[in-house]
Design goal:
The protein has 486 residues and is of the alpha+beta class. The chain contains eleven helices and 27 strands. The protein folds into three domains: 238 residues, Beta Barrel (Thrombin, subunit H), CATH 2.40.10.120; 94 residues, Pdz3 Domain; 94 residues, PDZ domain (Pdz3 Domain, Roll). It is globular and about 65 Å long.
Length: 486
């Protein structure tokens, strides 16, 4: 056979149309996928509830504090406030008590437990910001039944809340294991976006372990591209087995609507918080008493740390569990309870969920030497909550800051809530070139007060396009302005 004839036959083989059975097989696969989504919707929807809240809100014209993200903060608009209420983390707050007027908000939730007795309750998981400051909460089921709900417990730090309705025998959703969730896995969000009851959207898990977003104090978010919109907040994120793997909480958006980035609280975290809220009425958290920051490549080189990762201790509070265990400023934590540590937010969550009084092991690197340190976990109090939290790190500026706790405020001679303290400065960074040193107090960013590490980080984020910020800083008894450019 001539060579060109063989080549022509080979080309014709590639041009042969796909057999009809193969096309039909592809359509059958798509049809099966659609049926799977429909099956999950039928199983899950009866347990998803529509929540309407009458809450307290400032009267029109009341003065508000500046938005932490400036005008570009995606949650700061009347449209978002209408659906999520005034208490969503990040929205501006009144500067002083004002006359109040009723405000209506709405969100979602899902039944996750129910009493056996005929006269018992059904318990609903939702977000704290959905029901915070509520005067009355009404819950509507898929079949149209309405109930007045009571708050059993709220945890603003994790944005988890449990409410109850006087009805037993209602279908409760099974709770899955969010630790087994994988990036790329199908997930389904069900809720009431824009008041459209029991709306289903489908997507995948885009990322896991999202922290330092400034949405809540304790963050470990699942990121998904399943459409989440105002009103979805508090609703379930479920897998293809119909198990809840997360509580839909927030969106990142420039318009207030869906732009492909949504966040959900992992159900493993929410489950532990909910259990404490029902049993104790509050959440008890573990406490170490250290200020921690992410170990950047520059810091790792400065501390002679290899590629093993870890997080850096920027400060140790006096008489804290960490101090009693012998931990020091400059130690690098590489493992906690035998598991690797490489993220500030994740480490903070793990410590907070450790029962106070338990004896745990930390693996650290000090002066290039790896060692194990035993520490007895303390109990977090309101005064200690800041000292035990992470520093907010801004890579653009090359510095880390920490909210002023009562202890830190006394140390620096200021009042708690009056600025943030610089806990670390990267050599050669924009902050270092401007003369900022460890211990400097940052009072304002762009002429607006910053009173927490999260507020500072949001203010810096809002200025990323300008690549310049105006700071009012204090050192000793002197204050002065300076401009940082990067």
């Amino acid at each position: 056979m001539p060579r060109y004839t063989a080549a022509l036959l080979t080309l014709l083989l590639f041009l042969v149309p796909t057999p009809a059975p193969a096309q039909a097989g592809g359509i059958d696969n798509l049809r099966a996928t659609g049926k799977a989504f429909a099956s999950v919707a039928r199983a899950v929807s009866p347990s998803v509830v529509y929540i309407q809240v009458e809450s307290r809100a400032p009267a029109p014209g009341a003065r508000k504090s500046p938005a932490p993200f400036g005008e570009r903060w995606p949650f700061d608009d009347d449209f978002f406030r209408r659906y999520f209420g005034e208490d969503f983390p990040g929205l501006p707050r009144p500067e002083a008590p004002q006359d109040e007027r009723p405000a209506l908000g709405q969100g979602s939730g899902f039944i996750y437990a129910t009493d056996d007795a005929d006269s018992g309750n059904s318990y609903i998981l939702t977000n704290n910001h959905v029901v915070a400051n509520a005067r009355e909460i009404r819950v509507t089921l898929q079949d149209g039944r309405n109930f007045v709900a009571t708050v059993k417990g709220r945890d603003p730090k994790s944005d988890v809340a449990v409410i109850a309705i006087a009805a037993s025998g209602l279908p409760a959703l099974p709770l899955g294991d969010s630790a087994k969730l994988e990036v790329g896995e199908w997930v389904i969000a069900i809720g009431n976006p824009f008041g459209l009851s029991h709306t289903l959207t489908v997507g995948v898990v885009s990322a896991k372990g999202r922290t330092s977003l400034g949405i809540s104090d304790y963050e470990d978010f699942i990121q998904t591209d399943a459409a989440i919109n105002p009103g979805n907040s508090g609703g379930p994120l479920v897998n293809l087995d119909g198990e809840v793997v997360g509580i839909n909480t927030a969106i990142f958006s420039g318009s207030g609507g869906y732009m492909g980035v949504g966040f959900a609280i992992p159900i493993n975290l929410a489950k532990q918080i909910a259990g404490q809220l029902l049993e104790e009425g509050e959440v008890t958290r573990g406490y170490l008493g250290i200020v921690i920051q992410q170990l950047t490549p520059e810091l790792a080189e400065s501390f002679d740390i290899g590629p093993a990762g870890g997080i850096l201790i920027a400060q140790v509070s006096a008489d804290s569990p960490a101090a009693k265990a012998g931990l020091r400023q400059g130690d690098v934590i590489v493992a906690y309870r035998g598991e690797p540590v490489d993220d500030v937010g994740n480490f903070r969550n793990r410590v907070s969920l450790t029962p106070p009084g338990s004896r745990e092991e930390l693996t650290i690197i000090r002066n290039g030497e790896r060692r194990t340190v035993g520490v007895t976990i303390g109990r977090l109090s309101e005064d200690e909550s800041v000292a035990g939290g992470p520093a907010a790190t801004t890579e653009e500026l090359g510095l880390s800051v920490q909210t002023l706790s009562k202890e830190l405020a006394e140390q620096f001679g200021v009042e708690p809530g009056e600025g943030v303290v610089v806990t670390a400065v990267v050599p050669g960074s924009a902050a270092a070139r401007a003369g900022i040193e460890q211990g400097v107090i940052i009072v304002q960013v762009n002429r607006k007060p910053v009173n927490t590490a999260a507020e500072f980080k949001r203010a810096v984020t809002a200025s990323r396009d300008e690549r310049s910020i105006l700071l009012l800083v204090r050192k000793g008894d002197m204050q002065h302005y300076l401009v940082l450019r990067w």
